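Hi Y.,

Following your request, here is the sequence exactly as I used it, all 342 residues.
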Amino acid sequence: MKILDVFLKLFILISISLPLNSYASASDNDCVILLYHRFSDEGPKSTSTSPDLFKQHLEYLKKNDYKVLPLKKVIESLQAKEDLPEKCVSLTADDGFLSFYTEAFPLLLNYQFPMSVFVSTESIDKKYDLMMSWSQLREMAPLIDVYNHSTKHLHLVSQDTLTLENEISYAQERIEKELGVNDKFFAYPYGEYDNKTYSYLGSFGYTAFGQQSGVVSQASDFLNIPRFSMSGPYAKMDSFSLKVQTVDMPLKSYSPKSLIVSNDYKPSLDLVFSRPLTSYEKNNFFCFVSGQDLAELHWTGLKTVSIQSKAPLLIGRSRYNCTMPYKEKGQYYWYSKLWLRL
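Below is the corresponding structure, written out as C-alpha cells. Let me know if you'd prefer a different format.
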C-alpha cells in the first residue's frame, strides 16, 4: 500500500534526525493492544495474517522482553489507576475463525502468551465450518479469554434499540451461558458505532474496543479503546516492531467523538494536548489521511491543533493517523481517528 510505504519512510527520516535528549515524559501506564482476525496464507489479505508471520511476532515479543498481558488485566489496571509494566502488549482477535484454534492457539501455547478472542455468537450456534465451536473455545481456557463481538456481526450504525439488544445483550447471554464469562467487553463489528450504540454500551457498563490504531492508557475513552491492526501489510515485521513501541499521544481532549461524517466530507478533528509541545515536537507532528497524503494542520499555540483532509473522504471508513516523535529514538506518540461516511 503506497500510503503505508510513505508513512514508514517518513518515520525512518524522523528517527535519523531525532535528538537524543528527552522532550517530555509519557505516562508509564499505557499498553499496546494488537488486533488479528484470520491466521492464514490463503484468506482475504485485508483480514489475514500468515501463521509464520504471527510466530515471528511472538518471537519478537519474547526476545525483546515484552510483557504480554491478558486484556482483562490491562483494562482493570488502567481503570484502577494501577501501574502496568513497561513494554506492555495485549493480543486480541476478532470474529472467532477456526484458524485461531488450528494455527494461532498452538503457537500461543508454545510461548505461553495469553490472548483474547471476540466472537459473534450466531456463527458458533449455527456451526459454520470456518468458525470455532463452543467446545473449542472452552478447551483453550484459561490461556484464551472469550468476549463479545455481537450476535450477527451487523454494522451497529442506525440500528433501533431492539436490534442493539439482540446484537449486544443476547450475545453476552450466550457467552455467559456457554463459557461462564460475565466480563462486559465488547468489540465493535468493523469498528463502527453511532451515538446510540455508544450510549447503549455505556448505560449497561461495557468496555468497548474499536479498530482505530493507537495506545490505550488511563486517559483513554473506555468505550472506544484503540487497537493496532495486524492483518495484511500492517502485519509485516517493520510495521509490527514500530507499532509495539508506540506511546499514547499526550491529549487532554479531542473532538468530535462521533465518527459519523455528514455534510462536510472534509471533517475537522480538534486536538488539545495535555501539555505545551516543544517546537521540535510541533514541527514533527504529522497526520496522514486514508487514501490521501498528509492532512492540513492549523495550530493555535503549542497546545491545540485542528486537522483536516485536503480532499473529501470516500464513502465508508477512513482514518486520520497522527504521530509525533517520543523521547527515545525510533519511538512515536500515536493517535488515530476513525471516520465513517455513510
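The CA atoms of residues 247 and 333 lie 5 Å apart.

Thanks again,
Q.
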